[in-house]
Amino acid sequence: MEKKRKILSRLPEYPAKKLPPPEAKFRDVLFWNPQRLLLFSRATGDYREFETLYRPPGGRWVVRRRIRRGGRRSYCWFEVSEEEARAWLERCGYASDGQIAGARRCVFCGGVDGLDLPYLDNVCIPCIARRVPGLVYPSGGEGGHGEDKVPGLR
């Protein structure tokens, strides 16, 4: 059962009136589930709830949760303990220096090249381009290894 938390804000933007500017921001890491054809959050384990962790000054930790349900989005900001923040960072694969750690492999081709999207954990850009209709590279290529690494929409 999830812990009852005091909600700091329900707005999409950082609650600057209640918190000082953050010293650090850690984005949720997503992973592709090829069976369900959905992106899932490493932080929540869900495809409808995504989180970003912020560290304001003074040793506090704040989470922004974005929830998508039935075509609608809602947001909530809440404070977490140091232990919860550490567990969140570990779940998302962050190393002690704040960078995403570990060997990553594409679930489609098994390769380690082309994993240039820092917050998408297990799919390379060329495989995304081959599997998502309308997704092409800016150079006009169809998404082979070695082409431009930044995807764009046609």
Q: What's the structural blueprint in terms of helices and strands?
A:
Elements: E1 7-9, E2 24-27, E3 30-33, E4 38-41, E5 49-55, E6 61-69, E7 72-80, H1 82-91, H2 125-131, E8 135-136, E9 152-153
Antiparallel strand pairs: 1-7, 2-5, 3-4, 5-6, 6-7, 8-9
Architecture overview:
With 154 residues, this protein is mainly beta. It contains two helices and nine strands. The protein has helices at residues 82-91, 125-131; strands at residues 7-9, 24-27, 30-33, 38-41, 49-55, 61-69, 72-80, 135-136, 152-153. It is globular and about 45 Å long. The protein starts with 6 loop residues before the first strand and ends with a strand.
Query: Which structural class best describes the helix and strand composition?
Result: mainly beta
The biggest sheet amounts to: 5 strands, antiparallel
Give the strand content. Answer: 25-35%
Rg result: 17 Å
Order of helices and strands: EEEEEEEHHEE
Global mean pLDDT: 75
Individual helix count: 2
Helix content: 10-25%
Question: What would a concise description of this structure say?
Answer:
By secondary structure, this protein is mainly beta.
Provide key terms for this protein.
single chain; 154 residues; 2 helices; disordered C terminus; two-stranded antiparallel sheet; 5-stranded antiparallel beta sheet; mainly beta; globular
